[in-house]
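Service request form, structural biology core

Requester: graduate student, group of Dr. S.
Request type: structure prediction, single chain
Budget code: on file
Notes: please return the result as structure tokens.

Sequence provided:
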Amino acid sequence: MSAHEEEYVARLESLLAGLQRDAAESQRELVESQQQRAEAARNGELGRDWQDVQRRIDAGQATLNGVFSGEDDSPAARRLLDLSQQNISRMAEEMPIELQEEVAETQAEIALLGRGGIAPTTPILPPDPDDPLAPPAPPTDGPGPA
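Core staff response, request fulfilled:
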């Protein structure tokens, strides 16, 4: 392996380690947030519909995914889904146009991935000038960083 390749492998390994740490922290925060929401729902702090749905979740008769995907057709789940959709629509209307466009692009990429397609990606590594199959580097407007 060349020094160039070793440098990129080391950078990728460092990036991967950082992403793994971030993912673990995000997972801990998500679990804590879900536990707090569930407890508030059980106590009725989020309203009767949330309390009913949480009771069904605790009994193994429902899931949050089922509620918000529309699979759960209980009256309380339907009302929570409707309210969620209204809130999302209202937030989307209040978003700056640039952000609306970015959200639409992201949603299109997610939909494409969900159908087994390949979403456009940004390459992680720059082209290797020694690789005969690498695309040509784009022209520069002058000397770049050394």
